[in-house]
Amino acid sequence: MPLFALAGAIGAALAYFFDPDNGRRRRKELIQRTGKVFRQAGRRAGDTAAQAEGMKQKATHLKEQEKPQPDDVTLARKVETEIFRDADVPKGKINVNAENGKIVLRGEVDSRELIDDLVSKARNVQGVQGVESLLHTPS
Fold first, then answer.
1. 89 φ, ψ to 5°?
2. Helix (H) / strand (E) containing 93
3. For the segment 111-139, what is each residue's pLDDT rounded down to a tens digit?
4. Residue 137 and residue 114: Cα distance in Å, rounded?
5. Can you give the pLDDT at residue 7?
6. CB 103 within 8 A of CB 131
7. N or C: which terminal CB in the chain sees fewer CB atoms within 10 Å?
8. For residue 103, which of 116, 122, 117, 85 has the smallest C-alpha distance?
9. What is the pLDDT of residues 37-73, one digit of tens each?
10. 72: which residues sit within 8 A by CB, 6+ positions away?
11. How far apart are alpha carbons 8 and 115 in whole angstroms?
12. Which segments within the chain are labelled E, that is strand?
């Protein structure tokens, strides 16, 4: 009995898709819908692959990798970038030098708090091994 049902279903499908009046339109619609399903499945698979790759990268790079010690010029520029970030820091009055990983800050600033802040920011830059402050206030 199941064989007759299968043969009947195949016969009905053939009659539906090869109907002389509407068969051509029905075949085109089937082709378009099938293509759409495969395109959507491909996009979903691509999205899933991209998400998996992103998760792999996050797991690989959970901790920032140690970088080699930068040379003195690079280190001085990194410290300048960090300490001159605020607009109230007098950029023209402060000199930043690096000597074998040690930062030397020279110049005149308005307050003792600013000196402490600049020294703290310089110490937090990766690669700085020490900070010598020759900063002073006007008084």
1. -85, 125
2. none
3. 999 999 999 999 999 889 999 999 999 87
4. 10
5. 85
6. yes
7. C
8. 122
9. 888 888 887 788 888 888 888 888 777 667 788 889 9
10. 97, 98, 99, 100, 101
11. 91
12. 94-99, 102-108, 130-136
The percent of residues in the chain predicted with pLDDT above 70, rounded, is 99
Q: Which residues of 87-96 are buried (b: 16+ CB within 10 A; e: fewer)?
A: eebeeeebeb
Axis-axis angle for helices 23-60, 2-17 (nearest 10): 100
CB 96 within 8 A of CB 102: no
Task: For the beta carbon of residue 44, count every other beta carbon within 10 angstroms.
Answer: 10
pTM over 0.85: no
Tokens of 87: 């607009």
Angle made by CA atoms 96, 98, 99, in degrees to the nearest 5? 145
- Specify the DSSP class assigned to residue 70: P
In a 3-state reduction of DSSP, which class is residue 105?
Answer: strand
pLDDT of residue 139: 76
